[in-house]
Fold this sequence. Notes:
The structure holds two protein chains of two kinds.
Chain A: H1 3-17, H2 51-54, H3 58-64, H4 75-78, E1 81-82, H5 86-99, H6 106-116, E2 117-118, E3 124-126, H7 145-161, E4 162-165, H8 167-171, E5 185-186, H9 197-209, H10 213-230, H11 250-261, H12 264-285, E6 286-289, E7 292-295, H13 309-316, H14 322-337, E8 366-367, H15 369-389, H16 392-413, E9 414-415, E10 420-421, E11 424-425, E12 430-431, H17 441-444, H18 453-466, E13 491-492, H19 494-507, H20 510-534, E14 541-542, H21 562-575, H22 587-619
Helix pairs in contact in A: 1-22, 7-21, 9-10, 9-11, 9-21, 10-11, 11-12, 12-15, 15-16, 19-20, 20-21
Chain B: H1 2-23, H2 27-35, H3 39-65, H4 75-82, H5 87-111, H6 118-126, H7 135-145, E1 152-153, H8 183-190, H9 194-197, H10 211-223, E2 259-261, E3 271-273, E4 293-294, H11 303-306, H12 310-316, H13 371-394, H14 400-428, H15 430-438, H16 449-453, E5 466-468, E6 495-498, H17 512-524, H18 551-561, H19 567-575, H20 592-601, H21 610-616, H22 626-645, H23 652-657, H24 663-669, E7 675-677, E8 690-692
Helix pairs in contact in B: 3-5, 5-7, 8-18, 8-20, 10-13, 10-14, 13-14, 14-15, 15-22, 19-22
Amino acid sequence: MSKLYIVGLLLVSWSCLVAISQAKSYGFDLSTDNDNAIANYEDNDDKFPSCEIYCTGNLLHTIQTANPKLFSDSKTFVDMKLNNSPDKTLADFEALMQAKNQTPTSEDLKKFVDEYFSPKGTELEAWTPTDWKENPSFLDLISDPDLKQWGAELNNIWKILGRKMKDEVSKNPEYYSIIPVPNPVIIPGGRFIEFYYWDSYWIIRGLLYSQMHTTARGMIQNFLSIVNRFGFIPNGGRVYYHGRSQPPLLTGMVKSYVDFTNDDKFAIDALDTLEHEFEFFTNNHSVTVKNHTLCVYRDSSAGPRPESYREDVETGEEFATEEEKELHWSELKAAAESGMDFSSRWFISKDGTNDGNLTNLATSSIVPVDLNALLYWNAKLIAEFHSKAGNIKKVTEYETKAEKILQGIQEVLWNEEAGVWLDYDMKNEKPRDYFVPTNLSPLWVKAYNISESEKISASIMAYIEKNKLDTFPGGVPNTLSYTNEQWDAPNVWAPMQYILVEGLNNLNTPEAKNMSMKWATKWVKSNFKAFSKDRHMYEKYNADQFGVGGGGGEYEVQTGFGWSNGVIIEWLSKHGRDISTGAAGGGGAAATRVMSVVGVAAVTIVALIAGRFLWQSWFK
Amino acid sequence: MGGIKYICLLALIIGASLLTIGEAKSSRDVDAELNRIPASKWLQLVDSALDSVKRQKRLEDSLLSSDITVRNGSLSHAQLLDTLPSLASKEDSIIALKILKSSLFVYNSECLPNEIDGDDCRSYLEQKPLPEGSSLRTECENLIRGNREGHNAFRRLLDSSHYRNGFYEMFPNSGSRDAVPAAWNISKKLYEADDSQSSEEEIVENNSNLGLAQWAQFVEHDLSKPVSQSMGSGAPIECCSRDQNNLQPRHHHPACAPILYQPDGKYDVPSCLNYVRSALSVADCNFGGAEQLNQATGSLDLSQLYGFTLAAEKKLRALQGGLLKTTPRGEYDNALLPMATDTEGPSFCARERIGDGTCFAAGDSRVNSNPFSILIYTIFMRNHNKLAAELHQRNRRWNDEKLFQAAKAINVAIYRQVVLEEWLPAVLGGHLASEIRRKQYKRALEVSNEFGVAAIRFYFSMLPNELQNLARNNVVEGNDKIQYVFVGKEQPTTNLFELKEEIYKPKLQYTSAKLNDILESILNQQTMDMDSTYAGGVVWHKSTKPTHADILAFDIQRGRDHGLLPYHRYLESCFLSKPVTSWKDLERFIPKDVLEKLKTIYSSWADVDLIVGGISEKPVRGSVGPTFSCIIAEQFVHVLKQHEQKLDHNHAQLVEEYRHFNGTKLLCLNSGLSAVPQNIFQLPSASNQMVSCGDV
Lengths: 620, 696
């Protein structure tokens, strides 16, 4: 269908009717920055100086649990900027508490917040990437005109999602919850107004396909700088994420960058930092299962999540003692480290199933397939970069590490009966036979014996059939349990579709490749439908429906949206010649194209004629 | 520049025509495309839908374990009583939901990806039987064959629905091109402070008393009862937090469509009023879109008094002398309605603690809706018992059953007479009301959505915040009759009650004397104007936490839930020879100041909701505007036909003896009033004289 073009024609003709002749304006000044040059960030001794306001303490507790509540989203408050130093703010707050007999009203607190805090996000400026291209070459790889148009619009969204920190942030970091970084970033969007760790992997790939190498490199350099400062990459760019990371994909980002640019030196220069992140991660997350050392998701901080404080206090009420509450919050945060906050994937009920709700979270007792597959991949990639540098000793060292992880994956996580890899429940010492897309993640990072591809493929295809994974109109849901948590059915997430599709494609058997192509096509078409209807890309979608955003969880579905855009741009680049928006294989697509040609022709003619008239009338 | 304009116009026309060509896939294409789906695939689609329904159970269990359900005594409880589903309608709705889900699976899997739009897809599916051999087909056929105790699907007046996806999805309030303004925002913007309203009263001639609104509600209770969806376990669904804020999405039931108000600014916690989508009804065993269930039937049969089912009726009978149960208060003719037992309590009154305070029982959960409804239910209960006693006097050997049936038949006949001969002309004007009798349809149809959830709801616009005490001990002496004419406006009066205090929580000390006062005051108090402004007691216009419902927001939301078409479609079909194309076309029907307000609320005239357009119209004759008149009149043609088809021959002769009964007599005989106006729906005046009850 050529609706976009026709609508375009209507718009063009309308705008010429009312004689609008202004040039497009994006609201940003294109000429002023050279921010892609790498700034020097001066290291701060105190790692997270504003944590006493934003991570823990009486002020945080009082504001976030006020009754009636002040903000509909708990994240709002912790993203606000301080107007005074943390010390003065805390002292004056204590004075207020004293004056109000420790029981201030919501109105008292509103007054305090108004006086001592500036609105959220004021530390960030909109930023148009300087390397943004009007017509990135991936558009030429798309045959369907509507999809091509869509690709162009997605490319436009990079400009909306660009953010740069104001200079004052690095001068006075204690006034902000944001973690200062040297280069501008592309954010996910919606309530996520800062960078996020694993989101950035798919964002960076999208940028690379959009030929924005400088922005992509800047983001990777931010992460390298963070590792150098803190030893690891927090979940996202805020101090209150200080106790947890996210699925470790920095090395994967560097690999993507090198694949696109052939800039081996970049990878080699990063090696120290990448090794550091790898070692830090494995040291702080390892467990021993069946004599193998594998990793689990964890958190090292105390208390509720500051950005979801109220919600965590509420679920914490189910527990009697402070100790139990802390354990519960720790499991919540560990689940957040996995990126899947929250999901029945991390529930262990009394009888050892995935029944229950958030109070049953036992993330740190579950050995996850994806994390170990990723760490294998990290080790392989680090070895690969070392071999580029010619460090034979290091190559061997990391090949050995990779081999050890692979053995663990094969012996602990591969499940012959289910025919797939499964998370492992350490509490009940048994595999968890529940579908999650990450069960197939070893295929994506090739954490399996390539020589066994045929066998694994047959087994995986049977698993897909048995779980009816191909019957959902809107993609493969994240689990098969409808809990209303956002990483459960019916929600579908772009990065998980990516893992499934790329993994099946890697298997390289005809059945697996077919299914891979089928799912990629379905995903692209369904995202396109939602975009045509709502003009939005969503952070998550609904598997039970075609072209509908997801739901559930703590907050309303967000739009933007970094990783969704990244995955679509990659797949439009890879499969754009083979996907059309019309009826599958029918005459619809052809008719659409004819219609679009007519549409384009009409637009052109009108533009030409109108242009001449306007031209003449201006000079009369 | 003229030439350019033409060219641009030309382009606009080309573009527009392409758009229509591009949009449509001919129905042959649709058939061909969908006929290609093999039988096994149809089965698989239904299975997938059933799987997803089954998996929903986990979600509901987890909501219940988090205590997300309607709490006794809450606002949501009061609203639930307005829409309380019976066990049978719950079962009906669950099967209907499975059929809808199956249809949506087909739509999402086979239609949308192939560029078949929702309406085309639905039209095809409506002709397509559920697949042979599916458990759903069996379940559906068993339901259709069984005794459904008279539930029906609401009828769609123009044979089409208005859903975003053609099946069920409501239009969003933001974030897309087809967004419509939020229901609560509309209500808030239409609100005007109560005192600023009275200034216009001189302009419109309005002699109606509150009896008109009271009877409208009673008629509504008889003909229309949309009920809420429930969880699979039967538990009621809650869509707001305990402090009337929105819930986290994780606590959102799929049947929720809460009425939200999002304040501007930094402190941005939305207020929330519960709205659960209406229960669905199985029309046939084909695929198709959503059709809402009506737990009431399309004839005037006093089901609200006697109960919608035989079982319910039996519970209300005294089972001797043909009588209905009462709460004795001295003499029988001054009896009150029976009290709800402790176990029935939560299905009749919205009280925190069961057994606290007065709570009446009747055939419908809506009896305690307000003192107006309590009074009229009481009058018909008394009338029944009076008739039964009379019959018993005359026929000593009749048993309870015979007495009961005869008394019921006469009671219903009297009720019909008053509604059709007196109330309907007051609503529609005499001309249209008599026209209804001349119209003849072949077949009586059920109640329309447009009547049940929009047109008949006009009376809320007429309700005042409080009922003034206009009782004068009702002594009629000589020429004093005239005293009733000017009562009220000039004299400071006390109030009998504040409406918002009495919603589903009877607070008044109910006695026969109190009911007399209420009745007399109703007859003497003028209604508020039928217009787009509701009294503060029935809407929530403030930005603070709501402590009572917003009826207008609720009606707007429910209209959208039921997929009513926008207002202009009904206006066109009732009166206009050509489609509405601009706000200007509405000027004939809607006063200028109201129209200006609507323009600030809606981005297009094409979005105006039926209820909003309906209450905005100037009444021409009768009490309601032309579009609501048209919808009500159409419904009553069917009501009359229903009566004709279900004629009760057993009691025809008895009923004939009561032909002379009218509203005046009904009220006189069943209250302690000593005089009642000739026309019980108009204020007493020189042209509406008081009739002494001694004379009737």
